[in-house]
Design brief:
Layout lengths: L3 E6 L13 H6 L4 E6 L12 E6 L7 H14 L2 E3 L2 H7 L4 H7 L8 E3 L4 H11 L3 E6 L9 E4 L4 H13 L2 E5 L2 H6 L1 E7 L2 E9 L16 E4 L4 H12 L7 E9 L2 E8 L13 H19 L1
Parallel strand pairs: 1-2, 1-3, 3-4
Antiparallel strand pairs: 5-8, 6-7, 6-8, 9-10, 9-12, 10-11, 12-13
């Protein structure tokens, strides 16, 4: 009997995001039926699938308690989820950057501002000597509520700080000049192995610093220097388990790679930017299905 895999997506992309649409035909070549399914659709019986692969769930941060409850229901149903629920829960809060730093990963300096502590933001930035900094919620995706601000804070900037720290705990980092100057690397890993690299750049218009395509950014394939790939691989190896997929985002500072984000939940994997990438991900899913069947 053909195995069925649910590719979890969200209501605004019920047929998957364009990049993820490469995956069903790649899985079909292995005899696997892959179906886009909206994660928040309460009518879905998740036990009908052999596995759920989280893909275009790009609203999870807007409905975070519901998303965590959904993960719990899928786990309780006995259906396997990739990436695994423990990895997803850990990765959903950007405190994971502090964990990775403790495990020896070179990261952008990161501080956590507790909810409601707007007055702490400028004081912390000044104490660190950060005249320009980035502030965003610790649970955030796709540049959501992400701001670059300068000290001393003016009236409008203070309003932004108050707003972000009202949403919840906030992440505070120095502004990284390399992003606007040279772009941000994204390294895609499949089953722990490096697959391909892309370079993201912010639009040159309007002072926008966010590199996501929904904010006008661009993406292009790139042959990354091997030392950077090696350092990005170190990030994935610092995890307690090998993820089905990972996107390691960061910048080059000299010959050093500094991690900005480790994306384990719903990243665009830029499958269309590398020949054979969709097939590599499909093969990894098949290997995991085979292992699950063997142990089942």
């Amino acid at each position: 009997m053909s195995q069925r895999v649910a590719l979890a997506t969200y209501t605004l992309a019920p047929r998957l995001a364009p990049d993820d649409q490469l995956l069903p035909p790649a899985l079909a070549e292995f005899g696997i039926s892959a179906e886009p399914v909206v994660w928040s659709d309460d009518s879905v019986n998740w036990t009908e699938f052999d596995a759920v692969v989280i893909r275009s769930c790009w609203d999870y941060h807007l409905h975070f308690p519901d998303f965590l409850a959904w993960l719990g229901r899928v786990d309780a149903s006995g259906t396997t989820v990739w990436n695994s629920s423990p990895l997803v829960r850990w990765n959903a809060d950007k405190r994971y950057l502090l964990d990775l730093a403790q495990r020896g990963v070179a990261t952008i300096p990161t501080m956590i501002v507790p909810r409601g502590r707007a007055a702490d933001v400028e004081a912390l930035a000044n104490a660190e000597g950060w005249t320009r900094f980035v502030l965003k919620p610790t649970v955030s995706a796709s540049g959501y509520e992400t701001y670059a601000l300068r000290t001393p804070l003016a009236g409008a900037a203070r309003d932004v700080v108050t707003h972000v720290t009202t949403i919840g705990d906030a992440l505070l980092q120095p502004f990284v000049d390399e992003v606007s100057q040279n772009g941000e690397y994204s390294f895609t890993f499949i089953d722990g192995a490096f697959s391909h690299a892309t370079l993201k750049r912010a639009t040159a218009h309007g002072g926008e610093f966010r590199v996501q395509t929904e904010h006008g950014g661009s993406v292009e394939p790139v042959d990354a220097p091997p030392p950077l790939i090696e350092q990005a691989t170190h990030v994935v190896r610092a995890l307690p388990e090998t993820p089905l997929y990972a996107r390691v985002d960061g910048i080059a500072r000299g010959s050093a790679f500094l991690l900005m984000e480790l994306e384990l939940i719903e990243p665009n994997l830029f499958l269309g930017e590398s020949t054979g990438a969709a097939e590599r991900l499909a093969a990894a899913i098949v290997r995991r299905l085979d292992r699950s069947r063997a142990h089942g």
